[in-house]
């Protein structure tokens, strides 16, 4: 434990090595959880810190990617660079592509998967590809462990389902279809180091006749929370890649805003094209 004093109040910095110690700190006092810390200062209001800090990156078992009988487990403190360097199934290609888009290499080496989710930005690069992989979030506390769908975990802009005494321990992914492929498309004002204007992830599988039999499509930066386009997914089933189309009706769940990066109308036009590109890219690789 380290101590620092911004202003008049001495604050504590905890860096436990076990989950039990972390849960004890969460239960006993007001703390802010940090992992890579890449978003901690940019996202917080100006002024001195008011809470102690709990660094979870040294907790045993909270990092790494493993495969089990029920699917895949990504530890909450796993770095983005580890994701794109790991040999993963082809369905994870979209997630790995997104991992290469999370800021600079320095950010990718420090930023964590769970941190990206808990930051709950509408433009978080990791959320759409994780949604296409049917991700669940494992949450722990001194009271026990619970699991929640990622689609229910992020509840709004900068808002999650986490309680004050809880922390994310892992991302859980079911075993994807062996024949499916993933893809990720991101639109920004430049190639790297940019907040997304729109982004789309897709996981697509084709049967022996070249018809889509598995489809997941998710869009970020076009609504308060990234979300899957389930209507589009349903309409893709049974079609060949040259038969697919993305209509205005497919995009009705989205509610893009006007801001300095682009208008809502522009975002809808862009994301329709992104969906087509991501679906064709994912489907084309296994066709």
Automatic annotation (TrEMBL):
<dbReference type="InterPro" id="IPR005107">
    <property type="entry name" value="CO_DH_flav_C"/>
</dbReference>
<dbReference type="InterPro" id="IPR016166">
    <property type="entry name" value="FAD-bd_PCMH"/>
</dbReference>
<keyword id="KW-0285">Flavoprotein</keyword>
<keyword id="KW-0274">FAD</keyword>
<dbReference type="InterPro" id="IPR051312">
    <property type="entry name" value="Diverse_Substr_Oxidored"/>
</dbReference>
<keyword id="KW-0560">Oxidoreductase</keyword>
<dbReference type="InterPro" id="IPR036318">
    <property type="entry name" value="FAD-bd_PCMH-like_sf"/>
</dbReference>
<dbReference type="GO" id="GO:0050138">
    <property type="term" value="F:nicotinate dehydrogenase activity"/>
</dbReference>
<dbReference type="InterPro" id="IPR036683">
    <property type="entry name" value="CO_DH_flav_C_dom_sf"/>
</dbReference>
<dbReference type="InterPro" id="IPR002346">
    <property type="entry name" value="Mopterin_DH_FAD-bd"/>
</dbReference>
<protein>
    <submittedName>
        <fullName>Nicotinate dehydrogenase FAD-subunit</fullName>
        <ecNumber>1.17.1.5</ecNumber>
    </submittedName>
</protein>
<dbReference type="InterPro" id="IPR016169">
    <property type="entry name" value="FAD-bd_PCMH_sub2"/>
</dbReference>
<feature type="domain" description="FAD-binding PCMH-type">
    <location>
        <begin position="6"/>
        <end position="178"/>
    </location>
</feature>
<dbReference type="Pfam" id="PF03450">
    <property type="entry name" value="CO_deh_flav_C"/>
</dbReference>
<dbReference type="Pfam" id="PF00941">
    <property type="entry name" value="FAD_binding_5"/>
</dbReference>
<dbReference type="GO" id="GO:0071949">
    <property type="term" value="F:FAD binding"/>
</dbReference>
